[in-house]
Amino acid sequence: MYWVIALFDEKTEQLIQEIWKELTVKDISYYEEEINDARPHITIGSYNELDKQKYIKALDEYYEHKKPIDITFNTVGSFLNFGTLFFSPTITRELLNFHSDHHDFFHDFNESANPLYLPDKWIPHCTLANKLSPEKLSQGFKHCLERGDTIKAKITGIALIELVDDSKDCIDAPIVYSKSLLE
After folding, report:
1. If residue 109 lies in a helix (H) or strand (E), which one and from where to where?
2. Cβ neighbour number for residue 140 with a 10 Å cutoff
3. 32 near 38, Cβ under 8 Å?
4. Second CATH level (architecture) for the domain 2-180
5. Domain boundaries, the chain
6. Which of 18, 85, 166, 177 could make an SS bond with 140 (beta carbons 3.0 to 4.6 A apart)?
7. Minimal CA–CA distance to 90: which of 19, 138, 151?
8. What is the DSSP string of 38-97?
9. Cα dihedral sign for 145, 96, 41, 113?
10. Rounded to the nearest 5°, which phi and psi values hold at 97?
């Protein structure tokens, strides 16, 4: 499996990683330890199969002149029946266009795309914890609400990650390609 992810500015990335650590210290979630080299992100697309070299070449071409976009995280949310805790960005026209334009350009790859990440189904989010029991989910919400921080962030890069091995307790999903957006 492959995921195309939007990466954040350094300050936002560090802040999200701090929250991951806080949730670990409080024995709420071990999300940061469940994925090797995890990077805070918003998933733009997911694919079961991919001609990796062809896709990387297209990513390089498509994102050659794209500029960073500002986003604001001011919502804590959860997916029903998954125990996932996340920050959700304010939905702006710029963010929706960033996502839908990506999928328009990469439409040839949509045959193996996960439909949850396609336009009109996508719920943009940055995962803070996953597979939590209702009790741990409640504790995670409380922790995030007590922080009370609205996060002004910037999407500054795009990356392709590949699931290498799903058989261990810790998932390997290394970045196989990344590109910074132009300032």
Report:
1. none
2. 26
3. yes
4. Alpha-Beta Complex (3.90)
5. 2-180
6. 85
7. 151
8. ---EEEEEEESS--HHHHHHHHHHHTTTPPPEEEEEEEEEEETTTTEEEEEE---HHHHH
9. positive
10. -65, -40
Predicted confidence pLDDT, tens digits, the chain (183 residues): 999 999 999 999 999 999 999 999 999 998 888 877 789 999 999 999 999 999 999 999 999 999 999 999 999 999 988 999 999 999 999 999 999 999 999 999 989 999 999 999 999 999 999 999 999 999 999 999 998 789 999 999 999 999 876 556 667 788 999 999 987
- Token pair 């918003």 is found at 42
How far the first Cα of the chain sits from its last, in Å, is 30
SS3 for 159-176 is EEEECCECCCCCEECCEE
**What are φ and ψ of residue 159, in 5° steps?**
-145, 155
Determine the number of helices (DSSP H) and then strands (DSSP E) in the chain. Answer: 5, 9
Cα–Cα distance for residue pair 38/138, rounded to 1 Å: 23
φ and ψ at residue 89, rounded to 5 degrees: -80, 155
DSSP 107: G
Q: How many angstroms separate the CA atoms of 7 and 22, rounded?
A: 21
